[in-house]
């Protein structure tokens, strides 16, 4: 029973309950809003369809292969596309051709505008000598340069925490690839950074000239040798000081610096394949199921009697999931967040979409954070927050899968006999939100895992022959340490929940309806049992008073949106026979009728013992039962029993629905 803590006349427990009652509905609305925003704003297909990202194709729109860029731009010696390694040319050609031909294998998206700061070093790379400068009759020209690199990484978050690999015996830029490998560095990414200035006017003079010159950036990267690349696209401006030599046809850029107050327009190329398409379909289907299911749960669903002689067809089951038979009465059985975080269908479908879209999500988040962290903007920050919220459903999916897996092991024969399954539940959605605190820092965690790195440049060593394994790549190499972090997060949140609510968990363990959620189904949240209370009048068994309308909707939710395990209560038949004997002593004819019409169903040992003790004390005669039990049969169907353990049929329950009667569940 909840303990009220008072200080100077203030009922803190009541204040907390009131605050929770006001805040959680707002959070529920935020969850639905976040899913809607995520579906639209973070929809790569819609972003690509709008076409804003194709602005970044401007510098390469007139060519189909990277080598042809030398006809349009002046490059430094050794920095032309033809000077790249074979893999570097593959990266450049794939990007140039994809932008020019609008490839169906990639999304080209716009990712916003960001103010630049002194910490953003994007201009210095132009400080080179450009040869074969072609000048038009109007004295205009264009410059371009490339930088090819392979990035080597060492360690991850776990090794950084327990060893000195992030601080000791670090590599230097003068080292070759073999020396880096000897130090424990592993190649994890190859990239080509290409910069293209817009056309600008030259003064026909040998004196230094200073201009503000806009440029485009195409920065393709791949995470395994010769894999399809992703790319950062950008548009910015630099202050350049240079000297033009008309005789030698050269331009020497002596200074290229950041322009205070300038902005950087960001875009991305992301892969489009069967996985990203399936992710979009899965997310749309999940949201459709959530909306249709939640709308249905607002009303009262018909109670379903189980006929073991008939098999429910797939179509009829699907219709019952999204459009069940309804009474025109409010049920108030489920909140939006309770539905979205506890429905198997929604959680698993949404989690599948998240996993399939993880690569694009991480690429987008990392590139946006690089610029947004330096000068935070409201819109990108909110967008990043909604992307981080996606991973809430992975937490829920992991708990559900563990719960289902443990049940499939068959280690438990009766409801309530598994301490492991008990720990795979949270008392409320508050624990879900607490688990999100860590999820917001996933991008920073990935950066920390990859913070020990060195870039080997193509002009220092031939990069052909350096093999990059997918499992050593920038994101995948963090998977193990990220998984450890997420599991630790789940364990800590679960321990905190059960520690703070240990009295509550003891109470739920004794209640038949709560037991169906905690021990006998894939449910991981117990918000719909917040009104379970101790009742000293029946040997301290907890009770829950709820309307028949609410109970009908909960039966539908258990049978369609959760996986029921069908575990029996221990020694059911013996308890049933004991109750029949009690009935026979008091009213033989009534007992005979009860034996004829009742089914063999399940009942907890604790509840049965309390029931019989009540009989001996003269309480709650089974013929006038005022309480009910919720149980499952061997086919995982949910039943409602009266005090005589007789199965209550839908006609009786629907009568209570019509009169809005309340039921007391033990």
From TrEMBL:
The keyword Membrane appears for this protein: yes
Entry protein name: Transmembrane protein
Organism: Saprolegnia parasitica (strain CBS 223.65)
Taxonomic placement: Eukaryota, Sar, Stramenopiles, Oomycota, Saprolegniomycetes
TM region positions: 23-46, 278-296, 385-402, 423-442, 474-496
Keyword annotations from UniProtKB, A to Z: Membrane, Transmembrane, Transmembrane helix
Superkingdom per UniProt: Eukaryota
């Amino acid at each position: 029973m909840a303990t009220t803590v008072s200080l100077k006349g203030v009922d803190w427990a009541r204040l907390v309950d009131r605050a929770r009652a006001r805040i959680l509905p707002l959070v529920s609305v935020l969850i639905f809003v976040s899913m809607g925003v995520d579906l639209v704003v973070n929809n790569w297909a819609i972003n690509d369809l709008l076409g804003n990202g194709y602005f970044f194709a401007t510098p390469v729109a007139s060519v189909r292969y990277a080598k042809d860029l030398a006809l349009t731009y002046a490059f430094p010696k050794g920095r032309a596309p033809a000077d790249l390694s074979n893999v570097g040319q593959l990266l450049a050609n794939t990007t140039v051709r994809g932008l020019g031909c609008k490839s169906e294998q990639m999304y080209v998206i716009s990712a916003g505008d960001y103010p630049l700061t002194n910490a953003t070093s994007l201009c210095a790379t132009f400080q080179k000598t450009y040869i074969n400068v072609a000048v038009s009759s109007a004295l205009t020209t264009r410059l371009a340069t490339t930088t090819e690199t392979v990035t080597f990484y060492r360690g991850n978050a776990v090794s950084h925490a327990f060893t000195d690999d992030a601080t000791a015996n670090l590599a230097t830029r003068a080292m070759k690839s073999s020396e880096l490998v000897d130090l424990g560095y592993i190649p994890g990414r190859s990239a080509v950074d290409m910069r293209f200035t817009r056309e600008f006017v030259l003064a026909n003079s040998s004196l230094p000239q200073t201009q503000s010159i806009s440029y485009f950036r195409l920065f393709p990267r791949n995470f395994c040798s010769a894999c399809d690349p992703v790319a950062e696209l950008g548009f910015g401006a630099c202050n350049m000081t240079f000297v033009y030599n008309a005789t030698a046809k050269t331009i020497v850029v002596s200074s290229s610096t950041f322009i205070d107050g300038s902005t950087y327009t960001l875009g991305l190329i992301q892969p489009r394949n069967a996985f990203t398409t399936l992710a979009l379909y899965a997310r749309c289907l999940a949201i459709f199921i959530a909306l249709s299911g939640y709308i249905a749960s607002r009303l009262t669903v018909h109670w379903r009697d189980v006929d073991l002689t008939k098999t429910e067809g797939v179509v009829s089951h699907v219709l019952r999931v999204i459009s069940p038979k309804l009474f025109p009465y409010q049920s108030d059985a489920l909140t939006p967040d309770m539905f979205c975080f506890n429905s198997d269908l929604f959680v698993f479908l949404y989690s599948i979409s998240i996993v399939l879209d993880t690569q694009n999500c991480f690429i987008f988040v990392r590139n946006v954070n690089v610029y947004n962290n330096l000068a935070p903007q409201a819109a990108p920050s909110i967008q990043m927050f909604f992307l981080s919220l996606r991973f809430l459903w992975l937490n829920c999916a992991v708990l559900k899968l563990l719960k289902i897996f443990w049940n499939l092991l068959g280690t438990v024969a009766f409801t309530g006999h598994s301490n492991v399954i008990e720990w795979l539940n949270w008392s409320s959605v508050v624990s879900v939100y607490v688990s999100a605190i860590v999820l917001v820092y996933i991008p920073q965690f990935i950066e920390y895992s990859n913070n020990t790195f060195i870039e080997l440049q193509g002009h220092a060593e031939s990069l052909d022959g350096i093999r990059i394994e997918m499992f050593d790549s920038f994101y995948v190499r963090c998977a193990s340490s990220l998984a450890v972090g997420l599991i630790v997060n789940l364990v800590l949140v679960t321990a905190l929940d059960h520690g703070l609510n240990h009295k509550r968990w003891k109470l739920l363990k004794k209640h038949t309806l709560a037991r169906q959620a905690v021990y006998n189904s894939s449910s991981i949240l117990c918000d719909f049992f917040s009104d379970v209370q101790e009742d000293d009048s029946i040997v301290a068994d907890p009770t829950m008073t709820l309307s028949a309308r609410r109970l009908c909707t909960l039966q539908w939710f258990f049978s369609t949106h959760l996986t029921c395990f069908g575990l029996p209560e221990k020694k059911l038949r013996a308890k049933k026979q004991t109750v029949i004997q009690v009935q026979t002593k008091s009213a033989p004819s009534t007992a005979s009728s009860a034996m004829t019409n009742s089914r063999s169903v399940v009942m907890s040992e604790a509840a049965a013992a309390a029931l019989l003790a009540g009989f001996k004390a003269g309480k709650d005669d089974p013929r006038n039962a005022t309480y009910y039990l919720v149980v499952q049969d061997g086919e995982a169907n949910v039943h409602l029993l009266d005090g005589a353990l007789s199965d209550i049929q839908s006609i009786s329950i629907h009568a209570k629905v019509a009169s809005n009667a309340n039921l007391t569940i033990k």
